[in-house]
Design goal:
Layout (H helix, E strand, L loop, with lengths): L1 H21 L20 H33 L5 H4 L39
Length: 123
């Protein structure tokens, strides 16, 4: 599905570039010239057709762009760091690593991070 939309998107982009280049510029460099009175497109008629074609192709370009974005979002998992963090009540407590040398562990026994420290009473 993504490949089909991508190919259509590229065809629309190339066609849009061609239609924009065909339009008459202020200097008339690449624009198609106006024909005689008996021609199919007068200069005003050609401008109207090219303007409408440009608008239609621009709308189609934006629609395929949004469609490609939605399809890409659906194919991949969550991209935010906040989506990967479990809720506060479901955090797993990590066990301190076991010493490798048979001696005591280098890390002290600390209370879990979500438990309040205990204060000795009577001192």
């Amino acid at each position: 599905m993504t490949t089909v939309v991508l190919v259509v998107h590229l065809l629309i982009a190339v066609t849009l570039i061609g239609v924009v280049l065909l339009q008459r510029s202020e200097g008339g460099a690449l624009g198609i010239g106006g024909g005689g009175a008996g021609s199919l497109f007068t200069s005003r008629g050609a401008a109207n057709v090219l303007t409408r074609t440009t608008a239609i192709l621009a709308v189609a370009f934006f629609v395929t762009s949004v469609t490609l974005t939605v399809l890409a979002r659906r194919e991949h998992g969550p991209a935010s760091v906040f989506d990967q963090v479990p809720p506060a009540g479901q955090q797993q407590q990590q066990q301190p690593p076991q010493g490798t040398g048979g001696g005591p562990s280098v890390l002290p026994n600390l209370p879990p991070a979500n438990q309040a420290p205990q204060v000795p009473v009577g001192q």
